[in-house]
Amino acid sequence: MIHEHFEKKSNAVLPTQIAFKWPIRVYYEDTDAGGIVYHARYLHFLERARTEWLRQFGFNQHTLKEQNTVFVVRDMSLKFMQPAKLDDELTITVEILNIKKASIQMQQSIYEGEHKKLLAQVTVACLDAELLKPKAMPAEIRRAIEEKNINEGVNL
Asked: Which of 27, 32, 65, 140 has a CA that sits 20 to 30 A from residue 146's CA?
């Protein structure tokens, strides 16, 4: 199901203020025989941006796992708008919509210049790395996310 917020934010112009942006170039390995990005590769692009978004706060996946914490995608809705092609320079964005005790709802977009290629609604869950069951997000991660969003004028 596509969320109501999903449709509201589907404008095709790159917003000037986004919580996080990550550049990616499309390589041959990302495309099909016609030079168009294979649909599953978009998931790789979105994952890389989420990983780098988390890293900006000083947290990396390896260290978190050693501390018995992992983040996994619980839910994702995609809206493909325009195809990306070989050698395109893309910008992947991450915008936090809501943060809960053990999950984060975010919107991600992929742009080439000002042209939106894809819109995604993503819910990421925080899990105990050993039990693979939901657990409260570490306080320092939640605090870092909330402070950055407050500084950017976003109310969660």
From this structure: 65
